[in-house]
Amino acid sequence: MMAWLDQVKWNSEGLVPVITQEASSGIVLMMAWMNSEALQNTVDERVAIYWSRSRARLWRKGETSGNTQKVKDISIDCDGDTLLLKVEQVGGIACHTGRHHCFFRRFEGGWSTVEPVLKDPNMLYD
Amino acid sequence: MMAWLDQVKWNSEGLVPVITQEASSGIVLMMAWMNSEALQNTVDERVAIYWSRSRARLWRKGETSGNTQKVKDISIDCDGDTLLLKVEQVGGIACHTGRHHCFFRRFEGGWSTVEPVLKDPNMLYD
């Protein structure tokens, strides 16, 4: 394994959490996971490629919808166990619910949905 | 358990990852974890209280340094398994290394430190 990949503190499943932020707006779009292959591919291709835990395979974000994420910057935290990606979100929709980002429920005594659906999610899942 | 707490998808250890973002700047300060008690206390007190996995106890951010995080907003993602906090970072230092935020190593072929230490970290650990 490359030295820089080996410096990442992968968890017991070989994964790290990845925070993905829109470079232009600063909006946190989503949180996902990568294994070392996903991170290597992301670096090589400069588009976000995650590890889908539910499907147990590499997940090229936007692979069906075309809503890919062009990677501008990758950072790692002090403990080496979390990554931060700054991306350009192609199509403006990061969430499989058809919203701009995934953190669309705000705590207001309970969880209130505060962001609109921009596109039919049946067209999107990826 | 309160209904809204029960709607959070706690992992097998009873935790969720928490992304903490500076409300004023949009900078992602850190990633940490909460259990249900930490989240309930955070909601009640409007300051960030995490679960420290290394110390296996509630961790009131800034408990020794005074660099607390005043919580302005709490959101949950589409899957209900990640939280996003928007905070005011008292003292301007979120990272135990004495830096403004924890994502101070950028990928440039390897991990390069690109943020200055603002305060002696020996004065800070919390």
Describe, in plain words, how this protein is organized in 3D:
Two copies of one chain form a homodimer. The first copy, chain A, is mainly beta and 126 residues long. Helix content of chain A is 11%, strand content 34%. The first copy, chain A, has two helices and eight strands. Chain A has helices at 3-6, 36-45; strands at residues 16-22, 28-34, 49-52, 57-60, 69-76, 83-89, 105-107, 111-113. The first copy, chain A, has a four-stranded mixed beta sheet, covered by helices on one side. In chain A, strand 3 (49-52) and strand 4 form a beta hairpin. The longest helix of chain A is centred in the N-terminal third of the chain and has 10 residues, at 36-45. Chain A is globular, with a radius of gyration of 15 Å. The model of chain A has no long low-confidence stretch (mean pLDDT 95). The A-B interface holds A 3-4, 7, 17, 19, 21, 25-28, 30-31, 43, 73-79, 82, 84, 95-97, 99, 102-107, 109-111 and B 3-4, 7, 17, 19, 21, 25-28, 30-31, 43, 73-79, 82, 84, 95-97, 99, 102-107, 109-111. Strand 5 of chain A pairs antiparallel with strand 7 of chain B, so a sheet runs across the interface.
Q: Quaternary status of these chains?
A: homodimer
Structural class of chain A: mainly beta
Task: Bin the strand percentage of chain A.
Answer: 25-35%
User: Strands of the largest sheet of chain A, in order across it?
Assistant: 2-1-6-5
Question: Biggest protein-protein interface?
Answer: A-B, 35 and 35 residues
Order of helices and strands of chain A: HEEHEEEEEE
Number of helices of chain A: 2
Q: Mean pLDDT of chain A, nearest integer?
A: 95
Distance between the termini of chain A: 29 Å
Flag low-confidence runs of chain A: none
Helical proportion of chain A, percent range: 10-25%
The whole-angstrom Rg of chain A is 15 Å
Main beta sheet of chain A: strand number and arrangement? 4 strands, mixed
Number of DSSP strand runs of chain A: 8
Shape of chain A: globular
